[in-house]
């Protein structure tokens, strides 16, 4: 886990908002049509709709969040779903507490 890399990712308000929304996906996104739970996360299309940004921008954001370890992707057919990586988020918060 790289504190600086994660901090760079979190320097963008939309990426922070995505993590906030993914914390309680059932409150922030509509139900999935093909899957009746949020166990694997939220479909990229729902995230894009909520942000109002282009698909390419959201893909870039989610890719940087994945590279930093903040989110975990899961494929269902042609769709990718993202959920928070709670262990990395917890480790990051603890590292900030102890190192700063």
From TrEMBL:
The keyword Phosphoprotein does not apply. Pfam families: HTH_5. The keyword DNA-binding applies. Residues 1-100 form the HTH arsR-type domain. Keywords: DNA-binding, Transcription, Transcription regulation. Transmembrane segments: none annotated. GO terms for molecular function: DNA binding; DNA-binding transcription factor activity. This is Transcriptional regulator. It comes from Flagellimonas aquimarina.
